[in-house]
């Protein structure tokens, strides 16, 4: 009887969150298209209100948790991993720097900016600090009291972060679009109507140098702010799904990250990371300078990306083949965090797939094909294949049960010294491992027989004793060799998988950098804009690109977990 009201509370809270998000989304869209009567101050006022409500709820929850500290509370050991908390803390610190830049920007243009543009970064900074503290302390909680109220509080927090993420994505996309339009003007695209979307203040800055630093620095910090809010929303969503959940007492398996054994993967991954940073720097310097330099920059980008994606596909296929050679069951237990990870991987990959299929269709349908556009074809195909393979590898990895060490293998070996030779009185490793220890059948183990036989026949002659001891030693050595060789093969497979996970982790970080910091050939290629039209293709890119960027960061986080778990 108690589950039915709680199911209703879950449905009602989710509908409340969706309506909250849709209202903010329409307000954001109205500001972006310069709707009549809608200004940026209206959008910021709405976001400030949502953040203040979340702050009140988090303070209430923290105070209530302090009063109930002595009570034993259930925890979800799979939620809120330490490395995830460290990652969100790093993004939060950079977000605080972004807020300080916005405050400085407001002070310099205070004569012609709305007061909400100064209140917003201050409120956002306080919201960020308290939210990170809340997630560090309570991300693993399984709430069992005030469940209806807590559902509304948590889902409010989820969609507040999603709206802040949407606002950051839109602001950053508008800046990227303006830069793209300026490059098109430089390259002389006369057949495209270009109108710059300028939201700059209509007054002079009090300190020109500081204004330039603040205005330019803000857009380089936005990618970290975007990742912070999407990570926070996913952690809060898992907390919402865990409300009222019944969990069995399970032992938490600590999986610390170790550099030992992943040297090869780290070296190749760092090479990819370093080369990607160099490619991005050259690309941003060369693109838009002239037509020849732009085409060379695009060609350089495509060749590098094709090489990296081909390596990632190969590594993923090798990992999947290793899994096919192993016979290990999958963990199908209920786990909201793991389920969300798998859904986000497939869902956000659709953004890249949409852009890739758009590029493939443009290449097929275009009448004229500049030379550099042909590199876009293998690049787009490899993007589709690589995500397909990588998703399969990650999802299978996080669902595989961890290999448990057999306690019988840890049996203390009893040794005796007889006539100068050391004999083991325990069964061989192979017999223990296969569950065929001689003691289970009521027989004396072969090693015991060898020792006892030697002692019983001591009066009959030393030759028989020595022969028995030699036979026992040979059997013991052969058994141990069989176990160690099998264990060696398993360790080699694990070492290869850890190196592949480390390599893919660094590769995903590398592929996150170009679109996050303005290296977007989907904008600069030009072929898609000619086939689909400028405005339609830009809309597709602006909708799909945030999901593509998030996919790379989420994949890197998942691969880090895979590396720790393997």
Automatic annotation (TrEMBL):
Record-stated family: Belongs to the otopetrin family.
Keywords: Cell membrane, Hydrogen ion transport, Ion channel, Ion transport, Membrane, Transmembrane, Transmembrane helix, Transport
Transmembrane residue ranges: 16-37, 43-62, 83-107, 119-136, 219-240, 261-285, 301-323, 344-369, 496-518, 530-551
A Pfam short name: Otopetrin
Biological process (GO), any one: inner ear morphogenesis
Organism per entry: Cuculus canorus
Entry GO CC: plasma membrane
MF annotations from Gene Ontology: proton channel activity
Topology within the bilayer: Multi-pass membrane protein
Protein name per Swiss-Prot or TrEMBL: Otopetrin-1
Principal location class: membrane
Statement: the UniProt record of this protein carries the keyword GTP-binding: no
Compartments in which it is found: Cell membrane
